[in-house]
Amino acid sequence: MDLATIITERRSIRRFNSRSVSQELVTELLAQAVRLYGQGESPRVRFVYAGTPEARERLVDGMTSSMRENKLMRWVPGKMIELFKSRFTAIPGHLIVVAEAGSDRSGGEASVAAACGIMQIFQLLGWEQGLGMLWDTERIIQNEVFFKQIGIRDHEVFVGILHIGYFDKAPRGRSRTPAEKKWTVYEGREAKTV
């Protein structure tokens, strides 16, 4: 399969089957994604993988406990939280991506950009292997309780979680906005949208 086809056909997957995802495959794809990103110096990015049933359960416990810290979530029925917990515990793998914050703004932004680039490449490489993923950055789990539980250090920022697994059926693609509709020409004065 060529790259353009992989990019066009890749979808976010929300329903995974129970087939396990080997840690070796995740490590191999990550190493390849980091090499392909190749922006000179080594990116200041770190990965945490929860692939065993015990690790997934601890991770989801951390996600739900951080959700319970949110004032709005106190109104959500316990059954909904248990449904969330069982659904996410069943996902075969979770890859947490963390970037170095950097001592200045541009250093931190460069690290986050590198992490995002690596995550995108990783998703494309995974798709080629039959792996589906969902990139999760839900604000509701982003708090100190969760960050402490997953081991984020003072000089690091949470970039996202890739929920990973094999799937039986990919969702249909949605129509995309043509690039021409997002095109602006800069002429040295005010930019004109074409």
Automatic annotation (TrEMBL):
<protein>
    <submittedName>
        <fullName>Nitroreductase family protein</fullName>
    </submittedName>
</protein>
<feature type="domain" description="Nitroreductase">
    <location>
        <begin position="7"/>
        <end position="166"/>
    </location>
</feature>
<dbReference type="GO" id="GO:0016491">
    <property type="term" value="F:oxidoreductase activity"/>
</dbReference>
<dbReference type="InterPro" id="IPR000415">
    <property type="entry name" value="Nitroreductase-like"/>
</dbReference>
<dbReference type="Pfam" id="PF00881">
    <property type="entry name" value="Nitroreductase"/>
</dbReference>
<dbReference type="InterPro" id="IPR029479">
    <property type="entry name" value="Nitroreductase"/>
</dbReference>
<dbReference type="InterPro" id="IPR052530">
    <property type="entry name" value="NAD(P)H_nitroreductase"/>
</dbReference>
